[in-house]
Specification:
Strand content: 5-15%
Structural class: alpha/beta
CATH class of the largest domain: Alpha Beta
Largest sheet: 5 strands, parallel
Number of domains: 5
Helix content: 40-55%
CATH superfamily of the largest domain: P-loop containing nucleotide triphosphate hydrolases
Number of helices: 22
Strand order of the largest sheet: 10-11-14-9-15
Amino acid sequence: MQNNESFLPAIWTVSVTRLSRLMREVTTEFDGRAHIETIDLGFEEAVTHIRERLRDEDCDVVLSAGSNGEYLRNRIDKPIVLVRPDGFDLMQALTRARRHSSKVGIISYGDALPAFSAFKQEFGLAIEQRSYSNTEEVRDLVAELVSLGCGVIVGTGYVSELADRAGAIGILMYSPDSIRRAFEQAIDLARMLSAARSGVRRAPTTPDSRYSLRRLIGNSDKMVALRDQVRLYGASDRTVLITGETGTGKELVAQALHGASPRRSAPFIAVNCGAIAESLLESELFGYADGAFTGSRRGGRVGLIEAANGGTLFLDEIGEMPLALQTRLLRVLEEREVLRVGSVRPTPVDVRVIAATLWELDALVAENRFRRDLYYRLNVLRLALAPLREHADDIPLLLMSCLRAVGVGAMVIDGPAQAALQQHTWPGNVRELRNLAERIAVLGLAESPLSALTRPLLLRCAPELFAKAALPDPAVAIDGDPAEDRVAISPSRKRPEAAALRALLQRHRGQRGAAAKALGVSRSTLWRWLQEDGNS
């Protein structure tokens, strides 16, 4: 039975135009109280999108407004909470409108709003009020009010956008407070429904919560686009190659792809190709026949590829796979069969392969360290994960999730602390953020129960966040490398000059791995720098 106190409802907000922007601004205030995701669609597009997602995911409440919300109410089998403006919201909207025009138009959904009529009579305002029952009427109403001389039109997000297009000024009738009230109502409703279900466990929409898209947390454009790609690629059965820096969540994305696929009820088998000794990797992947080698188990053994039959095989750090095994993997992908070590009879398999790497495989291909034919066989659908520094707006939400995972309850991140978090470059990405959450849990709770993450607490837990990103001294060796590996850094580019890179490569006989280590960067970063300078 779920603890209702720790229950975090999943709320999907559905809105278009400027109302979407307002909702995004308010959403961050509810971090730690709900999983909130914004869907920037309206009407039938929104209905289709939500119905498809509900096949594999679940949400507790849908939050929308105006005619869009009413449209969803009759077509989505989920509780709908509508954002409703009150008298104060309307008064604020009128105040803003009067700054631009002496004649104001108002277009509302459903019945005419009595509050506007009262304002008009009480203050003698020149207000033209209209209402609509379907979206087809809105364009005509906007055109009518513009022709009557209304320089400003107050209404829903859809109305205000049409007003802007028609040459008037559109004013949104909703305020941040009305959005906050709707969120509070949605959270209360979700908790009430959860309490009513106490003791009744719903069948999960996926076999394991590890494979849920909910774990891809973030409301930034990059995370919204990533979830959309995962849904799209999940429905396909083609091979996917996931690239990204260490700690960006490549396995998390692979699990979400599995959960979004028709194979979600079958096994998900993950193999780290760089963590298993080369001498063992072949038998682990492909299995072995009875008597294949000294010490082999009687009757043989099923390999991990066969174990994933019907499901998904995730090959992490595929760039570390030895060339000899790359040839055998290519045969599995092309022939859909596995030949166990010591066997002459292939076994048919039906697996979807998802591979991941932090290296640029095309660079490894150029160095003859990765088979070109396997690269093209893996690189069918590609997901490039952005480093955390490129979607820093998601950091507070991600940190709150990490804190909950380590047992810290709901807390607020104050402005100075949030600024420090978002200014850090996060070389370890989300993995580094999880480490920070562990430290906060230990150091913060040792002092007192935490209700807020402040800059002083952050400074004690992670002083590195406040250290200025000092550039390497050209006269000092990097990471203790020999003096001949010293390179000149351009302060404006924060990376070695092209001539310095060429000299460093020459000293390491063209070995990019050794050069990258000397610089203290990943091979992919070094490869990108070389590409920029035309030294590929």
